[in-house]
Every structure is written in C-alpha cells, then in structure tokens.
Amino acid sequence: MKKILAYGACALAVLGATIDPSLAQDQAAVVTEAVVEAAPEFAKAADVAYIFNTLLFLIGGFLVMFMAAGFAMLEAGLVRSKNVSMQCLKNIALYSVAGLMFWITGYSLMYSGVDGGFMGSFGPYAFDPVGGNNLDTGYSTASDWFFQMVFCATTASIVSGTLAERIKLWPFMLFTVLLTGILYPIAGSWVWGGGWLKGMGFSDFAGSTLVHSVGGWAALAGALILGARKGKYTATGQVVPMPGSSIPLATLGTFILWLGWFGFNGASQLAMGTIGDVSDISRIFANTNMAAAAGVVVAMGLTQVLYKKVDVTMALNGALAGLVSITAEPLAPSVWQAVFIGGVGGALVVFAVPLLDKLKIDDVVGAIPVHLLCGIWGTLIVPLSNGDTSYGTQVIGILAYGVFIFVASAILWTILKSTIGIRVSPEEEALGLDKVEIGVEAYPEFGQGSARM
C-alpha cells in the first residue's frame, strides 16, 4: 500500500510542478517524504525478486544435476552387461571433475573479463557461498555458479556414451579435465560470457550448440581417433548388432533426462522475479515438452515405415533429439513450431544413426546424431521464430564452434593416444571393462551363471 501511495505522491508532485513551477521545491519535499516512507516496501519487492531469481537457479541447477543420473542410466542400459559398472563410474567421476574444474578455471574463463573477446581470465573463481548477496546482481552468486557448473558437466556426459566399451578410464578422465576446465568455458564465453559471437548477434538460448554440439564435436573427434569396437563392423562393411544390457534402464534414463530438461531450458530464462518471467518460463516448459513428444512420435513412425518394426532405442533417442533441437530457442516458437523443430530432430536421428554405421563411426549410444546434429539443427532454425538473429550469423557460430572444438579435441585425443594410450587391448575389451579396469561387475551373479554354463 505504501508503494502505491509513493507512486501517487510522485505523480501528483510532478503534475503540480508542471502547473506551477514555483511549487517545485514544496513538491520535492512531498516526493522525498513519500519515497522515504515507502522505502521498506521497495526493498521488500527487490528482496522478493532476488529470492525468486536465486530459487530459479537452484531448482534449475539440481534438475540439470539430476540429468547426470539420466545419462548414467541411459548409458548403462545401452552398453553390454560387461561394461555397465564402468559407465556408472565414469558418469559420477566426470560430474565431480567438472565441478572442481569449473571452479578452478572454468567460471573465470567463461565469465570474467571476456568483454567481447575470445575468453575470460585464468584462475579460481573465488565465490563465497554466503557472499555476493547484494541486490546489484539480482541473485545469489553461488546459485549462478552452481547452475552454470551443471551445464559444464552435461557436456562431458555426452562424450562418455559415444566412446563406451573400449576407452581406458584415466585417459578419458584427463580429457574430461581439459574439456570442462578449458575448452567448454572458452567456447561458452563467446556467447554467454559476452564474447565476440554475442556481439555479432548469435543466439543460443540454453545451449543446443554451446553445450550439446560442443559435447558432440568432442565425441566425434574421439570416436574417429579411438576407432570402433572390435567386431562391430565386418570386413565387408556389414554392421554387427551389439544390443545393450537393459532397455528399462535406458528408458528410465531418458525420462530422467526429459525431466531435467525443464531445468535446463526453463531456468535459462535467468529470472523469475516478475509475472512476465514466470509466464515465459511456463511457455518454455510447454515448448520443451512438445518438441520431445514430437521427436518420439516421428522416430516411431519412421522406424515402422523403414524397418517394419518400431525401434525402442530410436524412440528414446527421438525424445532426446527433440529436446536438443528446441534448446537453442525454447521461448519464441509457437507450439506448432516447437512440434516441427522437435519432429525434424527425431527424423535426423533415424537417418543419421545408420549413416554413421556406413561410415564406420561407432557411437554406442547415438550421442553424435542426438547432440551434434540436432544441436546444429536447433541452432540453425532459431531465426524461424526469433527475428533478432539471422541464418548467416547462426551458420558462422555453428562453424566456429565446430572448428574450434573438433580440432582442439582431435589434438588432445591424439596426444593422449600417442603417450599413455586411450584404448584397452582386444583381450581386455572382450572380457569387459568392468573386470579389467575397475574389478567390479554390475551383474556378478549373471556372469558366474554364464561361466558355469
């Protein structure tokens, strides 16, 4: 009520001073008194916005963190039984490494002093979990760091699934250190840190390119240098199916990822302190959900037509394809546009998976079609609904990220391969990484039963 009275006093004061300038001094005193009296109400409104903005980061952050569980379950379901423990280990390890590296170098490289350039500054981001709580920022410093960190971890999760079943643990972890501590933050600074691509008008709302394509390019470079799993392709070019261990686990992982994506896209609004912001977040939720649903339906329909049977793994990846596709711009599209964008993503996966096999690029979980190709598609189609950018600018950004991440990743993978080696021996690959790398089998009873038979 005091705030309303203050606005009224200000309006009357301005009107009075306009009618009779000699009253200006008296009216100034009235305004001052009204504003001073209403100051606690103004402060309370700012406090409420600060609380809701911070809450958005925290809720969005733990939803995206839960996506780490989704990736773990998806990969555990799509690899063979002898490699399940390894995938679980890699996913909890890469999340932990990403958290440390994003504090040591990542956040500063991505956000500190970019100023239209190509990267920020090196050094730990010295945030205080109870500091940064002034109203100048509009949110808690620690909540922002946490939200940005879980995005960084998501990028590394994409690489894990592609290279499953034949890569050594420690070389993979070393690559994760460099990806999360240097490559991803530098790439992120170009847009989200206010870098050179941001100045050009490149747009990527929640990370179709900045997160998903970055992970996809790194995975593609690794897959080419690492090579396919032994026995995946015959000498004549035929593809040998290697079914995963558990479709229920893969399905659970997909649903977890779908749920986490509401935090991924919704919290990228970065504010929840006004009615407009909350309305936008709701729209983002709806578009995100519709794109994923369209991706599933299109993937199911195409596999039925092409193969006379619905492929459940294609349906799962269709959902993820729709989600990645809508991530570059989940707010501006109409519902029909969101359905179109997600549906095209689902179709891309159906056609890209067999194409990779023809090229003998072994991607165990289909991460390259889902995250790289659909990330490119989602970023390219942004101008369809968002007139603030152009197709030309989007293409420049896509190419810039592709060249930087692919070349840098290829160099790192090559160095690791020529020094410590990145691939297990054929004998170890046949036994499974659970036994030879970590000594813990995911299904020990099943393995013992098979040995007795």
How would you describe the overall organization of this protein?
This protein is mainly α. The chain folds into two domains: 2-43; 58-452, Ammonium transporter AmtB like domains (Ammonium transporter fold, Orthogonal Bundle), CATH 1.10.3430.10. The chain is built from 16 helices and no strands. α10 crosses α11 (335-358). It starts with a helix and ends with a helix.
The sequence of SSEs as H and E is HHHHHHHHHHHHHHHH
Summed over residues and divided by their number, the pLDDT gives a mean of: 88
- Give the tally of structural domains: 2
User: In total, how many beta strands?
Assistant: 0
Query: Whole-Å distance between the termini?
Result: 80 Å
CATH class assignment of the largest domain: Mainly Alpha
Strand content: under 5%
CATH H-level homologous superfamily name of the largest domain: Ammonium transporter AmtB like domains
Low-confidence stretches: 1-24, 448-453
Q: Quickly give the CATH architecture of the largest domain.
A: Orthogonal Bundle
Residues in helices, as a percent range: over 70%
The biggest beta sheet is recorded as: none
Give the tags.
mainly alpha, disordered C terminus, 453 residues, 16 helices, Ammonium transporter fold, single chain
